[in-house]
Design goal:
Layout lengths: L9 E5 L4 H12 L4 E6 L3 H11 L4 E6 L8 H10 L5 E4 L7 H6 L1 H29 L2 E6 L12 H20 L5 E8 L19 H14 L3 E4 L3 H8 L4 H4 L5
Parallel strand pairs: 1-2, 1-4, 2-3, 4-5, 5-6, 6-7
Length: 251
């Protein structure tokens, strides 16, 4: 449960090496979050992330989690919830893919879709059910503005995020009145390891800015968070640009 100051006491991160997720965890730990689970594939990077957060005063544990292995999600995540209530679940896993390669190799494109959408549907429903059973909690879903309208440059990734976004919105509607909040986060271009070497897009941000927006959204119990906030207006306009013109825009 949240403490007297309204800060979550426990956090489960799906995608335990995500730079955005770890930046969010640091901010929540500074606000009195004391129990953190990092879910991901076993790796030195996951161990290092756990050690770093422990150094900030949190009780941090790791759990094996593979987005592509949907059949294992109920058991793996069930172990976490069996240890006690979780106040916030941050679903931050995903892969950007490689558009040019993925168009040539359909199975590579399928992996993007299975990770970003199918895996998220499975894990999201498992976590939502557990949060509903305990009667409280927030599920934060890291989406993307790429899902707002498919672009030629990344329509495979964008389509997977579009599916995720629609799923998360519907799940939030389904959970109304249960005590469980679903918050969809739509960042634009974020400077991370995954985007290193790519041309920077307008209104780019970093993991810290996204983390700050997530923490603020949790405090306000927002349903949708745009990062930066100005993207809401930009995407509202781009959504209605005729397709022949949209194809020619440098977006």
């Amino acid at each position: 449960m949240k403490d007297a100051f309204g800060a979550p006491q426990s956090l489960l991160v799906l995608g335990g090496t995500s730079e955005i997720a770890l930046a969010t965890a640091r901010r929540l730990i500074a606000l009195r979050t004391r129990r953190v689970w990092l879910a991901g594939r076993p790796s030195p990077a996951l161990d290092a992330a756990a050690a770093e957060l422990r150094g900030r005063g949190a009780d941090v544990r790791t759990v094996d989690f593979d987005a592509l292995d949907s059949a294992s999600h109920e058991v793996a995540l069930g172990k976490v919830f069996a240890e006690g209530d979780i106040d916030v679940v941050l679903m931050a896993f995903g892969v950007p893919g490689d558009q040019a390669r993925d168009e040539e190799e359909p199975m590579a494109a399928v992996r993007v879709a299975q990770t970003n959408y199918t895996g998220a549907v499975s894990a999201g429903l498992v976590c939502a059910g557990a949060l509903q059973a305990q009667g409280h909690g927030s599920l934060v879903v890291l989406s993307s503005v790429a899902g707002e309208r498919a672009r030629r440059a990344d329509f495979i990734y964008g389509s997977s995020k579009a599916g995720l976004d629609a799923f998360a919105q519907g799940l939030g509607d389904a959970l109304q009145g249960t005590g469980v909040q679903v918050m969809v986060v739509r960042p634009g271009f974020v400077r991370t390891r995954a985007t290193a070497g790519l041309p920077e897009q307008p209104l780019a941000t970093g993991p810290e800015e996204v983390a700050e927006a997530i923490v603020t959204g949790l405090r306000r119990r927002s349903e949708t968070v745009w990062v930066p906030g100005s993207l809401r207006v930009v995407m509202a306009a781009l959504r209605h640009v005729p397709r022949p013109l949209f194809r020619r825009l440098p977006v």
